[in-house]
Amino acid sequence: MLSKLAFNNIKKSIKDYSIYFFTLVMATTIFYIFNSIDSQTSMLSLTESKSAIINSISTIIGYVSVFVSIILGFLIVYSNNFLIKRRKKEFGLYLTLGMSKRKVSFILVIETILVGLISLAVGLLLGIILSQFLSILTAKLFVVDMTSFKFIFSKAALLKTISYFSYIYLLVMIFNVITLSRYKIIDLLNANKKSEKMHFKNKFVIIISFILSIVLIKYAYYLLDSGILFTMDKRVIYMLISGALGTLLLFFSVSGFFLKVLQMFKNFYYKNLNIFVLKQVNSKVNTTVISNTIICLMLLLTIGILSGSISLANVFNSNITKTNKTDFTIISYSNVYEIDENGEYIPKSLENTLPDLINEDFFKETVKDYTTITYYQTEELLYKKIIDSKTLEKLVDQYGKEMMDSFTQSKIFIISLSDYNKAMKLFGKDELNLEKNQYAIASDMDTMRDWYKTNYQSENTMNINGNILSPLKGKIIDMSLENSVGFSNQGFIIVNDEVITSMDSNYSIIIGNYTNPLNEQEEQDFISEIGKPGLNLYTQTKTDMETSSIGVKAILVFIGLYLGIIFAISSATILAISQLSEASDNKNRYRILKQIGADNKMIKKSLLTQIAIAFMLPLSVAIFHAYFGLKELNGVIKLLGNIDLSNNLILTTLFIVVIYGGYFLATYIVSKRIIKD
């Protein structure tokens, strides 16, 4: 009998709280999809290195899933709490009719189990179907064909999903039993007669809280603008605490503050049902301060994670061709010396000591074209020498003194004109010409070239190894010599060969192309056999850089989508359940409005306005925070490549509109039916 009653309760409640059940299904689906990535890619023709990346992604997603399960656990418990509150009178009637609390608790346990089984079954079914599309996305990211595509079922993902959600539903059952045991019958029977009250009505408290919230948020923006994203020091904690506390106080005060302002506009305040809507919003916002703050921060994370991950993925994708002009780069950190007539050790250049470093016969069999480049440094020549004072002051304000000092106090690399021109010949580009007392600067980072531009164009001279040199007229050269996964050349100086006479070398590189294309195994053999035993050689190949770029892009896309969807669904669900609860509470109020002459159109409009304000308030604050956050993050990303975060805001906005807007419309439709009933 109790089982039948529980089943009937679910059928009765699923209409009013369909959003809750839909969220459970979606959460299960998403959890399964992203945890099945290793199985979904098993049919793809991946190389060994790409398979290793997939394994790394699966491991990362496994750790992220623990965090996601905590978020979903909080979401389900929070949402379930609203459902329990809506059914207080029902539980009170059960107890009044003689049913014990143990039996009522048993009904709740059965309902939770049934809801869990239904949502798991539907969610897993959808997950198994939709996860097949993950293979298409992965194939596109890793640039492989899908000729051997087949339908894949992940047993590991299935067991993991069932396990995690079983723990969550067990927690819900315990929470429900404890909650019910704390209620008295009189409280349950009179639950519908109680309404939430505003805890603070003093206008001075509201005004002070509003001003304090603005001060705290402004302080958080100030810290953000001081370059803490680069230094990542303790000020980051201050910024997060200040921003979160300021947002909390803003939600506490904003409704009361604007209500006082709108009351001064009598024509608007008393028009139609505006007074009713504003009072409802004011009361609700003040009783959901913490939840609104959490929703706002989750939406901020959604915007930041999606925009940031997509932009970073685009950076690595767009840079890879430009930063890999040759098949390989061999870097020598092993100094090879010769002894002069005085018995002192003098570093020898890599070009003259090639047989001492590499397996020359094997090298010449595999490599068609190559050249060597030696980098030099002096104690006096630092990066601050090529940045003018006004630009440096602006950079200190933007990025912080600590970060700029660590950069500007570093030594600049110097290469000879002959080495540079040999590289240009290998790249198939025009050679560079320098007058006797000239130097040039090369960097493949747009931001760095902007830093050097003012000082360079003003033709300030520079003392290099006792030679007074002037900059080459024209633009700073956009160039990188080594293979890399992204723009990494902060800047090196090119000088005539006689300038570097007697200068100590820092390190040397060999760049070149294979005689014939090598497969992955052949290239690994080349890397392992090229160096002589005991020497410190580091090899970067074009293939490895492309694979690393794909791996970073895949991780950013998968983790960004995973967390973005979860945060968006969580925030929208909390708001939706809260508004459905509000609609249920307000049935009697809307009935009274109907009796005193309000027509259906006015009532529907007031309901739509109330729900719209509830959804838009945390989203508006999140967008406002995101504007300043993304502006600073954009500065970080621009150091890696010329990608603007704002270009991806359209995609992020569309994503939020689909999920957040879908929940908004569903909430309005269900709320309208609750009031109508």
Please give the number of β-strands: 11
- In spatial order, strands of the major sheet run 5-9-6-8-7
Can you give the mean pLDDT?
Answer: 76
Instruction: Tell me the helix content.
Output: 55-70%
Compute the separation of the termini in Å.
28 Å
Count of individual helical segments: 26
- Shape estimate: elongated
Structural class: alpha+beta
Strand content: 5-15%
Largest beta-sheet details: 5 strands, mixed
* Rg on CA atoms, Å: 33 Å
**Poorly predicted runs:** none
Can you describe what's shown?
This protein has 677 residues and is of the alpha+beta class. Among the domains are: 1-194, no CATH class; 328-542, no CATH class. It has 26 helices and 11 strands. It has helices at 2-16, 18-35, 37-40, 48-86, 88-96, 101-130, 132-141, 155-181, 185-189, 203-225, 228-231, 235-262, 266-269, 274-287, 289-319, 354-357, 360-366, 389-399, 401-408, 417-427, 446-457, 520-530, 542-585, 587-595, 600-640, 646-676, and strands spanning 328-332, 337-339, 345-347, 367-376, 413-416, 438-442, 462-464, 467-471, 492-495, 505-514, 537-541. The strands form 3 sheets. A 5-stranded mixed β-sheet has the order 5-9-6-8-7. A 4-stranded antiparallel β-sheet has the order 4-10-1-11. A hairpin with a 5-residue loop joins strand 2 and strand 3 (345-347). It starts with a helix and ends with a helix.
